[in-house]
Amino acid sequence: MKVEIEESKLQTAYANACDGVKDFMESLFGKKVFEAAKPTLDDYKTIRTYEDACKALGEPIFEDPNNLPNHIIALMKLETISRALWGRNFQPKPDGEGSKVYWYPWFALWTKKEVEDMNPEQRGALLSATAGSGACAGFGCLDAGGRSSLASAHVGFRLCQETEEKAKYFGQQFIELWAEYLKFNFTVGNRLK
Asked: How would you classify residue 152: left for phi > 0, otherwise alpha for psi between -120 and 50, otherwise beta?
């Protein structure tokens, strides 16, 4: 009998296994197969879970002694994951000139059917609304209404990434955690293609 296993599925099983099972898998398949599965700050794609982020950062897994609301715990976990995804060499810093672009996962809160039922003008409005707001992120907010200046930050910087690719990965890989953080009477469904 011959059994074939996709390498990515094998690595995912290894990443979620306890130490004894990991030892067994290494003896069965060899250690080299699983080296890519170990979380590291050098490759953001090895961060597949909150626990991976903690392991890569060398931080303990958060235990909630105060019975905090679920959305607060989710936010704390997302901030930890975001730091791990930044990697070893990226040090986010304020940019007083506003020339640095950061990326934030952006989610549609419409069902596939709702989007399909929209006319082209409604879809256009939907896209322009996200494009206008999707680029706003920063370290703080200054609002001097009725004065000569106005600056605002619409998205918390701690959840931004330095590339669009990483922000997309952050949103897709951790969609359930994002849903816990953002949700208000909705469930996670399939993303639109």
From this structure: beta
Query: What is the pTM for the complete model shown?
Result: 0.62
**Does one domain contain both 12 and 49?**
no
Whether residue 159 sits in one domain with residue 87: yes
Give the whole-angstrom CA distance, residue 93 versus residue 91.
6
31 and 84 belong to one structural domain = no
Range of the domain at 26: 1-38
pLDDT tens-digit readout, 20-66: 888 898 898 888 877 766 888 998 988 999 999 999 999 999 998 88
Handedness of CA 137, 141, 145, 151 (dihedral sign): negative
**C-alpha span between 138 and 152 (Å, rounded):** 8
What does each C-alpha distance from 190 to 109, 127, 130, 159, 175 come to in angstroms? 11, 19, 19, 22, 10
124 and 109 fall within a common domain: yes
Q: Which two tokens stand for residue 116?
A: 């399909």
